[in-house]
């Protein structure tokens, strides 16, 4: 009898287990689209990511709720739980998205244009009405300085030349730093012109940058005059402690082509900040929530030159959420002359001033047939007939096409709200900076992708398979990075 009772109990438990699995299968989340992010039907603190119709359940960090309008985890006050939550983002109208993060930019911000004196290192109180959790600590640059000291030294052969300038009275002033390339390489006039935008100062210049320091590079002084430390923290009241004002200035110093002219600087900052806002929820995130490997191994030149390091993941980090091993490798090559530095230590992109520098690197670097975002904003890029026919016109919309056009642009994008978010953020920042954007094309809904028939398709890569000749398809050896020609030759 005992034996038969055991059999009966086992069958009962087996039946319950099968029924449980059956119910789980019946009531599991069904992806409304093949790819994208979607709210969990009954849990505001989680969401589903769909990849090829397969759903992956993800949880927001403690205390945050999933904001379906912006596709990120947000403060609870900005999220409607269980009410009006759509089953698909394709029909979302983004009715409440403007209240989610665009409120972080106060229209009462007054931009300083006269003082570049050192300001307090503490984050000022926000002037917005958005509630901030009590766990948000004040930001000081001392914590981040210690991380920058641990960074490897740059080994790139790009260097600087100092030219001492004099006043009308004959007194000498701070030497002007000029970015230059040392290697004698077989480049074209087109590459030489593009190098003016992508040249980078070494760490010996960047590490010494501090707010109000009189020896700061010229473009840093322009930024300090336009965007004081107080304005920076008011614009980003919820910024992670790794995103400090000093770190931002160091990143600006790395790229002397950014904000080199005061009349364009406001536009460059406004555009840059709008994209930072969308990618990081107002500089709140230093790394992506979904820690996918992002390890590309299917392209031979990537596998050979930018191989993934054991145990490392290349999910989004920093203000631009740099992703994929080939981007980490290329950025590391540009910064340090060695792709292994950041392939082996990808967390540096989140925890040091590289969190901003990686985003600005993406901002200045062209991706043929896409122009650089800097060239679009500064007016260096002008559309030709093919681009005009594709409705790719100067403005924020064209930079959105550069960043994520495949998912955010065109008549039926898979992420229909992201471009709208960027437009709202840009409009808010423009208002705060006193920037007139009335002549810009802000949206990209009627744009076609950049093509090889466009005006930005230069041969800027050396290809070892073609005896290291310059080609206009991507390889591991950008001609915009000093020393890459010899590296190309050595790789053959």
Describe this structure in words.
The chain has 492 residues and is mainly α. The chain has 19 helices and nine strands. The chain has helices at 2-27, 97-100, 142-148, 189-198, 203-206, 218-226, 229-235, 245-254, 262-280, 300-305, 325-336, 340-344, 348-351, 354-364, 373-378, 385-389, 396-408, 418-433, 484-491; strands spanning 36-40, 43-51, 54-59, 65-67, 72-74, 159-163, 176-180, 461-463, 469-471. The chain has a three-stranded antiparallel sheet, with no helix packed on it. Strands 4-5 form a two-stranded antiparallel ribbon. Strands 6-7 form a two-stranded antiparallel ribbon. β4 (65-67) and β5 form a beta hairpin. α6 packs antiparallel against α8, α8 (245-254) runs parallel beside α14 and α9 packs antiparallel against α18. The radius of gyration is 25 Å and the shape is globular. The N and C termini lie far apart (78 Å). 45% of the residues are buried. The model is unreliable at 1-27, 82-150 and 163-172 (pLDDT under 50).
What would you say about this model in short?
The protein has 492 residues and is mainly alpha-helical. 37% of the residues lie in helices and 9% in strands.
């Amino acid at each position: 009898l005992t034996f038969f009772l055991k059999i009966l109990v086992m069958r009962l438990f087996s039946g319950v287990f099968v029924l449980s699995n059956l119910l789980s299968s019946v009531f599991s989340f069904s992806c409304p689209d093949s790819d994208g992010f979607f709210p969990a039907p009954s849990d505001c603190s989680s969401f589903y990511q769909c990849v090829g119709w397969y759903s992956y359940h993800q949880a927001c960090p403690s205390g945050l709720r999933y904001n379906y309008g912006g596709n990120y985890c947000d403060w609870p006050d900005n999220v409607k739980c269980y009410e009006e939550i759509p089953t698909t983002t394709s029909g979302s109208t983004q009715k409440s998205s403007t209240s989610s993060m665009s409120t972080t930019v106060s229209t009462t911000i007054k931009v300083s244009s006269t003082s570049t004196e050192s300001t307090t290192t503490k984050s000022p109180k926000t002037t917005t009405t958005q509630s901030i959790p009590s766990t948000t600590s004040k930001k000081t640059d001392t914590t981040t300085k210690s991380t920058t000291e641990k960074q490897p030294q740059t080994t790139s052969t790009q260097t600087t030349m100092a030219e001492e300038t004099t006043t009308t009275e004959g007194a000498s002033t701070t030497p002007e730093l000029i970015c230059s390339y040392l290697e004698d390489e077989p480049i074209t006039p087109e590459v030489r012109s593009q190098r003016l935008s992508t040249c980078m100062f070494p760490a010996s210049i960047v590490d010494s940058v501090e707010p109000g320091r009189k020896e700061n590079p010229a473009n840093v002084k322009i930024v300090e005059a336009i965007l004081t430390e107080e304005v920076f923290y008011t614009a980003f009241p919820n910024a992670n402690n790794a995103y400090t004002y000093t770190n931002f200035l160091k990143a600006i110093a790395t790229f002397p082509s950014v904000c080199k002219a005061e009349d364009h600087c406001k536009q460059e900052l406004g555009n840059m900040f709008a994209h930072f806002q969308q990618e990081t929820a107002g500089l709140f995130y230093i790394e992506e929530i979904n820690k996918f490997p992002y390890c590309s191994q299917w392209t031979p030149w990537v596998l050979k030159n930018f191989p993934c390091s054991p145990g490392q993941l290349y999910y989004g980090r920093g203000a631009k959420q740099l992703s994929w091993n080939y981007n980490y490798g290329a950025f590391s090559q540009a910064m340090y002359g060695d792709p292994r530095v950041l392939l082996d230590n990808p967390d540096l992109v989140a925890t040091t001033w590289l969190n901003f520098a990686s985003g600005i690197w993406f901002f200045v670097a062209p991706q043929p047939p896409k122009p650089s975002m800097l060239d679009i904003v500064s007016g260096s890029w002008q559309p030709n007939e093919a681009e005009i026919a594709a409705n790719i016109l100067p403005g924020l919309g064209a930079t959105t096409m550069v960043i994520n056009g495949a998912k955010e642009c065109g008549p039926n994008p898979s992420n229909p709200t992201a471009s709208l978010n960027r437009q709202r953020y840009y409009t808010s920042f423009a208002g705060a900076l006193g920037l007139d954007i009335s002549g810009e094309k802000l949206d990209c809904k009627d744009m076609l992708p950049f093509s090889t028939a466009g005006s930005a398709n230069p041969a800027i890569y050396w290809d070892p398979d073609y005896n290291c000749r310059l080609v206009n398809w991507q390889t591991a050896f950008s001609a915009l990075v000093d020393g890459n020609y010899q590296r190309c030759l050595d790789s053959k």
